Amino acid sequence: EIIIEIRNLSKIYSDGVDVYALDSINLEIHKGEFLAIVGPSGSGKSTLLHIIGILDTPTRGSIFIAGNDVSQMPDKDRSRIRNQVLGFVFQYHHLMPDFTALENVMMPLLIAGRTREEATRMANELLAEVGLEDRIDHRPTQLSGGQNQRVAVARALANSPAIVIGDEPTGNLDTKSSEKIYELIRRLNREHGQTFILVSHDEALARKADRVIHIVDGKIAE
Ligand code: ADP
Ligand code: ADP
């Protein structure tokens, strides 16, 4: 079952001369797949991930996410699909500094309309899943880089998104913490069947993924 279908997709930045950040990309991503996107700096990885995350639009071509042609939609519908289908983990965790781990994970649940009681129960379960049951009342400054990234993963999973995307999700971590985050993501991917699409320079990611795509100069390299 295909969850993302990308057809002849290009992203062109025109700044006097045209720069093809992405050049006629074709890609099918299967439901439940753990996909790694690797490639040199400036090759187009972030651009591709941002288009998949409905944060950016292609110049040409199409992208279907869970059956919706998101390249041709009004902003309102794009953000609805983004909120229903996608979860994000970024290089820097973007946790709210004045809130505890529990409150950070509760936030998307409350925004989605859960009661306080439900959100508390679900956030507790998510934090236990990422191994932080004894850190729920800590704030980001009281947690290590790896622990904060675990909170960010728990938060990304809060509303059970079909697709989780990560842009250098372990970019700020040492090798050992990085490995642990990838192992965690691998386990969550197996247990929940969610689709994970991660961009990284880190070879540890490529070793954990089901499939690795190399991007060079805006094209998928064979
Ligand atoms: P990567 O994530 O692989 O480092 P990017 O997707 O960030 O690569 O960038 C791909 C190419 O597109 C680069 O040549 C970059 O300079 C260019 N680019 C990215 N964003 C912009 C932008 N907002 N305006 C102009 N050029 C951009
Ligand atoms: P950088 O590539 O500089 O490390 P990030 O990967 O953190 O930046 O973010 C990339 C882009 O995605 C930025 O334009 C940022 O505004 C946007 N962004 C980051 N987090 C979110 C989010 N949770 N929801 C929507 N957009 C986000």
UniProtKB/TrEMBL annotation:
Any one Gene Ontology BP term: protein localization to outer membrane
Family annotation (InterPro entries): AAA+_ATPase, ABC_transporter-like_ATP-bd, ABC_transpr_LolD-like, MacB-like_ATP-bd, P-loop_NTPase
Gene3D superfamilies cross-referenced by the UniProt entry: P-loop containing nucleotide triphosphate hydrolases
Keyword Flavoprotein: no
SUPFAM superfamilies the UniProt entry points to: P-loop containing nucleoside triphosphate hydrolases (SSF52540)
Keywords: ATP-binding, Cell membrane, Membrane, Nucleotide-binding, Translocase, Transport
GO molecular function: ATP binding; ATP hydrolysis activity; transmembrane transporter activity
GO cellular component term, pick one: plasma membrane
Official protein name in the record: ABC transporter related protein
Domain of life according to the entry: Archaea
A Pfam family: ABC_tran
Domain (ABC transporter) ranges: 4-222
Similarity-based family: Belongs to the ABC transporter superfamily.
